[in-house]
Amino acid sequence: MYITVGIHHPKPSKEQEVLETMIKFGNAQHGHKGLVTVFAWKDDATGALIGTAIWDSKSDYEAARPDMSKALEGVDFEPLDNSIEAYRGSPIVWA
């Protein structure tokens, strides 16, 4: 299993535009081998928009990555986001 997380902190009045970009990015993942699920959610405390995807393997994610990058062509996050964090990896502890 391979998990990706992208955390966006939209600038004031830019939340909808960030969310639309996240939707495009998520839709670019659909149909690729190994995608288990992809979804976006909003943190109650901070208002951060968080995109999460779960893949069968890192190699499945890497094979789909060019389509994800293509979905973001021409997107300038500078006027939309205060900051973006990205995390990728495999689970190391199960509860």
Structural description of this entry:
With 95 residues, the chain is α+β, with helices and mostly antiparallel strands. The protein is built from two helices and four strands, in the order βαββαβ. The protein has helices at 15-27, 58-71, and strands at 2-10, 35-42, 49-55, 81-89. The protein is globular. The model has no long low-confidence stretch (mean pLDDT 95).
What's the layout of helices and strands?
Blueprint: E1 2-10, H1 15-27, E2 35-42, E3 49-55, H2 58-71, E4 81-89
Antiparallel strand pairs: 1-3, 1-4, 2-3
List keywords for this structure.
single chain; 95 residues; alpha+beta; 2 helices; 28% helix
Helix share, percent: 25-40%
Low-confidence stretches: none
- Output the number of helix runs: 2
Strand order of the largest sheet: 2-3-1-4
What's the gyration radius in Å? 14 Å
Q: How many DSSP E strands? A: 4
Summarize the biggest pleated sheet: 4 strands, antiparallel
Shape: globular
Overall SS class: alpha+beta
On the 0 to 100 scale, the average pLDDT is 95
Q: Roughly what fraction of the amino acids lie in strands? A: 25-35%
The CA-CA distance between the termini, in Å, is 15 Å
